[in-house]
Write a structure and sequence with these properties.
This protein is globular. The longest helix has 19 residues. By secondary structure, the protein is of the alpha/beta class. An eight-stranded parallel β-sheet has the order 1-2-3-4-5-6-7-8.
């Protein structure tokens, strides 16, 4: 099964580019930019990757992002992730980036987007990887700050497919961002949002009813409300589930209790993603292998998860058709091997 998972072409729909910042690259860029970080060695950073909750993770996440100053830094960060995509057979990825993490400390929006865009072009040319960008608003900041980010983005609208909502979920309900999401949709952005990772089921309802999302990031806690489950199924809303992230942030106590298999059996279009892989110990193949082994997922389950990701991606219909054909080719090869 491990070989099968490794061979399958994949789409990743829930990936924070700042969360793919491996310690080695963080140290390299910190030294290049002559920035002090609160860790003396790479091992010290790795030891700090022990989290009891989302906020523990966010504290180190933002500290790491602080070394990103120049366009080259964002390029290097993105290219390192695209390399991992190539190694994990990810042929389509929808990358979340957090402009406010950088603009709040004086880095220009254009510096961020230009570095990411140059990497996107080079990754397509080098490895054939297709990718889209999701601009995420930070929910612990004000809606006015999000509006400012929206205004900054308009000159680069042609490079950005979607808007999202991430960062500290508790105490920051989706409804807080009702107006900026409505304005973002008017500008042509597709709305998605983190909901139901740590927050209650009410937050998932708000993401659907207030923000009008077309896809839910995480959404694990929907299983606590059968009416919500039915609403998600009826609305044909996919969930971008992140198994190793859920385990590391203690949203799941042990992987055998992860809700992924239950979500599938309820008819929810779940997908597997790596979230912040540098911090949570695994990219796409590791996430698939972890849930396959501990939840005893069948080959059909794995195929469903992979196909869900392509089907509910923001790729064009023509691209989706091509992607699904590639999946079928690999499935056929393994059936005849």
């Amino acid at each position: 099964m491990k070989d099968f998972i490794a061979a399958l072409p994949k789409a990743e729909l829930h990936l924070h580019i700042e969360g793919s910042f491996e310690p080695e690259l963080m140290f390299e860029i910190a030294q290049r930019n002559q920035i002090e970080i609160p860790y003396k060695t790479i091992d010290e950073v790795k030891k700090a990757y022990q989290f009891s909750c989302l906020q523990d993770f966010l504290d180190i996440y933002y500290a790491g992002a602080g070394v990103l100053i120049y366009e080259q830094d964002f390029y290097d960060l993105a290219m390192a992730y695209y390399q991992k995509c190539y190694e994990n057979k990810v042929i389509h990825t929808e990358i979340m980036f957090d402009p406010q993490t950088h603009t709040e400390r004086g880095i220009a929006f254009e510096t961020v987007i230009n570095g990411l865009q140059k990497a996107r072009i080079d990754a397509k040319e080098k490895w054939g990887i297709n990718s889209l960008f999701i601009m995420s608003y930070l929910r612990h900041l004000s809606e006015e700050s999000a509006f400012e980010t929206l205004r900054h983005s308009l000159s680069y609208k042609h490079l950005i497919m979607s808007v999202g909502l991430d960062s500290s979920e508790m105490g920051n309900p989706p409804a807080k961002f009702k107006n900026v999401f409505a304005a973002s949709v008017k500008e042509g952005y597709i709305p998605v949002a983190h909901a139901g990772e740590e927050g209650p089921t009410d937050y998932i309802w708000e993401a659907i009813d207030v923000l009008k999302v077309v896809r839910i990031d995480h959404g694990n806690r929907c299983l606590e409300d059968e009416n919500l489950v039915q609403e998600i199924v009826k609305g044909d809303l996919a969930l971008t589930v992140c198994p190793l992230s859920n385990l590391e942030l203690r949203n799941t106590d042990v992987m055998t209790n992860h809700p992924l298999k239950k979500l599938l059996h309820k008819g929810i279009k779940a997908t597997v993603n790596s979230d912040d892989p540098a911090y949570f110990g695994g990219y796409m193949n590791a996430n698939f292998s972890a849930v396959q082994h501990t939840l005893d997922l069948s080959k059909e389950d794995i195929i469903t998860l992979v196909k869900n990701a392509f089907t509910y991606s923001f790729a064009t219909d023509e691209q989706k058709k091509c992607y699904l054909e590639k999946v079928n080719e690999v499935v056929h090869q393994f059936e005849n091997s």
